[in-house]
Amino acid sequence: MRIDVLTLFPDAFRGPLDVSIIKRAREDGLLDLQIHDIREHATDRHKSVDDYPFGGGQGMVMRVDVLDRALQFVQEQDGPPGLVVYLSPQGEVLSDRLVRELARNERLVLVCGRYEGVDERFVEHCVDREISIGDYILTGGELPAMVLIDAVARHIPGALGDEVSPEEESFAGGLLEHPQYTRPAEYRGWEVPEVLLSGHHAKIEKWKMEQRLTRTRERRPDLLRGDGPQE
Ligand code: SAM
Description:
Number of strands: 9
CATH class of the largest domain: Alpha Beta
Number of helices: 7
Largest sheet: 5 strands, parallel
Bound molecules: S-adenosylmethionine
Number of domains: 2
């Protein structure tokens, strides 16, 4: 899978996507991540990427012409054009279902806004999906893009290795995961549920399913009602 990111702050992507599972997926050629600096597509002598909003109001708005040139540059590179996603607090809220849907694309182009956001004409004419990571405002789309990349990359076949499956994690099948324990079996008098030490496979599986149901009912009843992120 290929993911292109358009950003004014390419350096923000150093670090979080260079460790662990994502690092390995990149090294193994499963994820081709390309970060592009939008400012390289500014043409005036000040390299301006933003301007005052028409009609007045606070802050600055990212220019449609600069964004369009940056996007065209990326889309004209090798391979099929990508699905264009603008990270925006006004978009559809990211969920497990949406992550799985995005992971089915061969290529994604993620556009990170800054300031007061982007000129609406760019959204109207160039963007396929607007996606939010939650009902709060961040200073830019870089962290939301990294959240999306991390979540999507886990669904690239082979990215998690053989031992782990996204089907056993929270939200798969509309339930939260059961609680997890590891050694030592007893610590400061805090014990592990006895059934997990019993070696009785069927009983353990039954316990895990009960835990998943109880947790989901207590913490996220919306998932059971079917009006949570799964639906
Ligand atoms: N003026 C915009 C509004 O009220 O809808 C908010 C702009 S925000 C300060 C700047 C940029 O951060 C946005 O263009 C977007 O790319 C990103 N951003 C902020 N919050 C976000 C969120 N919850 N999800 C996704 N992107 C977000």
